[in-house]
Amino acid sequence: MAEKIILKLGGSVITDKKGDCKVDKERIRALANEISQRTDVFPIIVHGAGSCGHPEARRHHLDKGLDQTNRAGIFVTHHAVGRLNDAVVNALRDSGVESVGIHPLDACTAKKGRLISFNCETVELLVKNGIVPVLHGDVVMDTEQGACIVSGDQIISYIAGKIKVDRIGLATDVDGVLKDGMVIPSINTESAGELDIKESSNTDVTGGMKGKISELLSLAESGIESSIFHVSRTGDFLDGRDHGGTIVTK
């Protein structure tokens, strides 16, 4: 039976985060090809927004909530990240991977920026029927502040808390969690407190690497390990080999 995994494609590796919704179609095609070549793993794909969502959310200050001045930001932000989701799904399908996009705006609600509802049964049924779900960071409605931005990392944390998966991997534009330019092979709650983890240098309304580590440490406390590695090592992660990155563990 194939391993069930969650694979996160960072927004910084599938878009040019310095551009304005500039999709890296070549990188996405290469990743889709890597995924299509593996029959012993079955992925739930989650991707970040990168330059297709973060700039729009920032311009409409949706990270601060919803008011009468920024309602149009919900459409603009969701439309941008939806374009990226279409690009990922289309590349997977062109590579022979049956897949479909799932949009958190349609399926989730949050409270004060944290997910409180998402019917994961749809994801489970897609996987059961051999269809790869492709989710993404998105704007979602929020019971307290009207709307908020939910990162792909928070989506991963929520799904992994509801659906049993064998492994979780995050493909990023860095080799892992770094200290003095060197990869830290493993971190946990205690050691993470000693690190000075920087925010993303590009437009990011979801916390960059700090946000990733926070979500993954929460999973680790419940016994679910995750890996952070450079996107060029995605094949190694899929094959269960050493990926040269960081393992977030309990």
UniProtKB/TrEMBL annotation:
Superkingdom of the source species = Archaea
Which positions in this protein are listed as binding ATP? Answer: K8, L9, G10, G11, S12, D173, G208, K212
Which keywords describe this protein according to UniProt? ATP-binding, Isoprene biosynthesis, Kinase, Nucleotide-binding, Transferase
Q: Which reaction does it catalyse?
A: isopentenyl phosphate + ATP = isopentenyl diphosphate + ADP
Tell me its EC number(s), please.
2.7.4.26
Give me the Gene Ontology terms describing cellular component.
cytosol
Q: Which family does it belong to?
A: Belongs to the isopentenyl phosphate kinase family.
- Report what the protein is called: Isopentenyl phosphate kinase
Write down the species: Methanochimaera problematica
